[in-house]
């Protein structure tokens, strides 16, 4: 089902958003048959409840907004109504709840309804809610549809298994996106990575059946420069430090950073933001073969820093490092990396929060407010300088997998920061990229994380 709003017509069903406190007064103002129907079906206006009611003037629908205690424990509450209501077109009605919503709250709820209509149907038809929403008055429908399309792209890319989403397919997806929006794109593939000085991307991906590559997409000719770098490890076996079967099970999502930046890029281009966008994706598969890179190998990066490999399963930071070094050579106004990088980040904040590291106080403030407006929660983590010694092995400039297990997300972020000259302008997101369980507006599976918060923050940070 397309993630778009519908146009109101004679068949559109009015939808009333109610709290438990409002319910009795609202019922008293309706036909007696509506109140009787609601009572008979036990509707209490708790968060997540929805009911279609027959009435003499045509059907009406009610959805529960719940209590403050219920609402604080989740988001996209209106999206629950879409899951509970039968097929049809619905239009939110003015009332105590709707009229009290701030514009950003109303937009977030409308977006949640759209996102709830997503289904990954490449391999099997999926049952998705058939309740469609008329764009509420006052929301920017085109903007929300563009955001939903970007999120759908991210989810599709992550959900696709590695057999159909290897480096070649990821390149094809990036090229399709470039074609759709008139962007330029080039790919550096296989041995050309060595000739053009991307040695760590080559080392990580050289053992795979599909050659490693660096994708470089550009769009826009005026305005501030924004560069997005996304980890595109299409599958991660762990390399010679082979993962266990349980740990390997979800590794099709290890290109979640690439999927996120491509989804965000789609939003930016669809909304025609006045900036110069560059997207860099090192696309590899970390496989096991006779020519796999090995523990205790020392690799020389594009930047010239040497890296001792103490775990071949810490490969994401290696491919990102070469891409970041390239991005840094152009000195963009804002440089952001996104990656499913460490288990430490997942353990620290769980799958629902997007931890990020930045030295840019303006960006941090804009992200915090943007996260609230977009219902896309983030959590700031520290670039803790005293931990720099943990990533310095002595035999080389850097250690890709410090021993001890402490502060894994922080040391990974510090590692990446070494490849950026103007570190205050650099921001890194260590995302999970996956919803373990379905929730309103969020199907189980691949997930865009922090992209909507970033989209909200960009105008303030880049003075757009």
Descriptive overview:
- Keywords: Aminopeptidase, Hydrolase, Manganese, Protease.
- This protein is of the alpha/beta class and 464 residues long.
- The protein has two domains: 13-130, Leucine Aminopeptidase, subunit E, domain 1 (3-Layer(aba) Sandwich); 144-462, Zn peptidases (Aminopeptidase, 3-Layer(aba) Sandwich).
- It contains 17 helices and 19 strands.
- It has helices spanning 20-28, 32-40, 68-71, 77-84, 96-100, 103-115, 141-159, 167-181, 192-195, 199-205, 245-248, 256-270, 316-329, 343-349, 361-373, 408-417, 451-462; strands at 13-18, 50-53, 60-64, 88-92, 131-133, 184-189, 213-219, 225-230, 232-236, 276-286, 298-300, 306-308, 334-339, 354-358, 378-381, 398-399, 426-430, 434-435, 445-446.
- The strands form four sheets. Strands 6, 7, 8, 9, 10, 13, 14, 15 and 17 form a nine-stranded mixed sheet that branches. The protein has a five-stranded mixed sheet with strand order 2-3-1-4-5. It has a three-stranded mixed sheet with strand order 11-12-16, with helices on one face.
- Strand 2 (50-53) and strand 3 (60-64) form a beta hairpin.
């Amino acid at each position: 089902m397309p993630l778009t709003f519908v146009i109101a017509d004679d068949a559109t069903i009015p939808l009333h958003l109610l709290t438990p406190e409002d319910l009795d007064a609202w019922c008293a103002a309706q036909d007696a048959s509506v109140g009787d129907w609601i009572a008979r079906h036990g509707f209490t206006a708790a968060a997540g409840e929805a009911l279609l009611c027959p009435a003499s003037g045509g059907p009406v629908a009610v959805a529960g907004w719940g209590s403050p205690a219920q609402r604080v424990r989740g988001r996209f509450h209106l999206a629950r109504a879409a899951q509970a209501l039968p097929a049809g077109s619905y239009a939110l009605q003015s009332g105590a709840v709707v009229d009290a919503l701030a514009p950003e709250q109303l937009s977030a709820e409308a977006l949640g309804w759209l996102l709830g209509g997503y289904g990954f149907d490449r391999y099997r038809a999926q049952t998705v809610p058939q309740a469609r929403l008329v764009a509420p008055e006052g929301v920017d429908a085109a903007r929300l549809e563009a955001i939903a399309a970007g999120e759908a792209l991210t989810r599709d890319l992550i959900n696709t298994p590695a057999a159909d989403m290897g480096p070649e397919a990821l390149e094809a997806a990036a090229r399709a996106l470039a074609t759709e929006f008139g962007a330029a794109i080039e790919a550096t593939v296989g041995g050309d990575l060595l000739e053009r000085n991307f040695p760590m991307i080559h080392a990580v991906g050289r053992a795979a059946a599909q050659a490693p590559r660096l994708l470089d997409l550009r769009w826009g000719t005026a305005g501030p420069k924004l560069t997005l770098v996304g980890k595109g490890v299409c599958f991660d076996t762990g390399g010679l430090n082979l993962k266990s079967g349980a740990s390997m099970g979800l590794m099709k999502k290890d290109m979640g950073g690439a999927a996120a930046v491509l989804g965000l890029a789609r939003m930016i281009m669809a909304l025609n933001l006045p900036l110069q966008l560059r997207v860099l994706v090192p696309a590899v598969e970390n496989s096991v073969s006779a020519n796999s890179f090995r523990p205790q190998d020392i690799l020389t990066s594009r930047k010239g820093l040497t890296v001792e490999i103490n775990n071949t399963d810490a490969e994401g930071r290696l491919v990102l490092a070469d891409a970041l070094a390239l991005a840094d050579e152009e000195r963009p106004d804002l440089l952001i990396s996104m990656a499913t990088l460490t288990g430490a980040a997942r353990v620290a904040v769980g799958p629902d929060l997007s931890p990020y590291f930045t030295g840019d106080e303006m960006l941090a403030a804009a992200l915090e407010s943007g996260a609230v407006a977009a219902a896309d929660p983030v959590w700031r983590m520290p670039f803790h300088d005293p931990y720099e010694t943990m990533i310095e092995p002595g035999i080389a400039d850097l250690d890709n997998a410090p021993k001890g297990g402490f502060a894994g997300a922080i040391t990974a972020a510090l590692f990446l920061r070494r490849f950026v000259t103007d570190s205050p302008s650099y921001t890194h997101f260590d995302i999970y990229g996956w919803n373990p369980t379905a929730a309103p507006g969020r199907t189980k599976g691949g997930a865009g994380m922090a992209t909507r918060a970033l989209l909200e923050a960009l105008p303030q940070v880049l003075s757009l």
